[in-house]
Amino acid sequence: MSPQITTAVRAELAPTGKLRVGINLQNFLLVNSNPTGGEPFGIVVDLARELARLSGLALELVPFATAGKLADAAGLGVWDVAFLAAEPLRAEQIAFTPAYLEIEATYLVPAGSPIRSLAEVDRTGVRIAAAAKSAYDLYLSRTLKHASLVRTQGIDASYDVFVADGLEALAGLKPRLVADAAKLPGSRILAGRFTAVQQAIGTPIGRDAGAAYLREFAAHAKTSGLVAQAIARHGIRGVTVAP
Fold this sequence. Notes:
The structure is a single chain. The radius of gyration is 19 Å and the shape is elongated. Strands 1, 2, 3, 4, 5, 6, 7, 8, 9, 10 and 11 form an eleven-stranded mixed beta sheet that branches. It folds into two domains: 7-101 and 198-241, 3-Layer(aba) Sandwich (D-Maltodextrin-Binding Protein, domain 2); 102-195, 3-Layer(aba) Sandwich (D-Maltodextrin-Binding Protein, domain 2), CATH 3.40.190.10. It has 243 residues and is α/β, with parallel strands linked by helices. The protein has eight helices and eleven strands.
């Protein structure tokens, strides 16, 4: 059953009269810029449109270049709903739903690397390239004990630094690393995952009615097949509907 909209929910999700949805253009698995200059498209856009339809609100997409910039804008009043990976640091400002989709994150290592497993990455002297403020960067910032992170502005830059500076590992979402490995002869993607990025829906902290409605919508999107259908429609590999 789809969630029921109330006056209180509308007031919190659309204080300007429009449902302003923040999207992260860096995550090409979920959203892409339109090459013709039109509206962005992808799994997230499909879900945002359905959210607007069910709530009876006009949709306004608010694009951001990176996940970090989207999260940092939580208290600026520029978006009311965001499709973004849930992370403890972000949850200080954003009320997240349970995940609707998961994406595995792992490492790419260069040709000739002695690193054979995930467990061998977190060692002294190992330098890991990562896009700053990405969900996997935030996760590694909390969990790494010995290896060091080399943060860059954006995913493309993390690959460039990994190659140019001869770093020991590149952290990233597995589907993107597959593409990176194809460009770098002899490189290897390590088996397994160090985390599964939990893609969720959020609203600024303090909007309790709106947050409750979004939790119901996220559950509806999974159980109704909406998320699975969007994945299939856009032909995205390497992502799965969250449990």
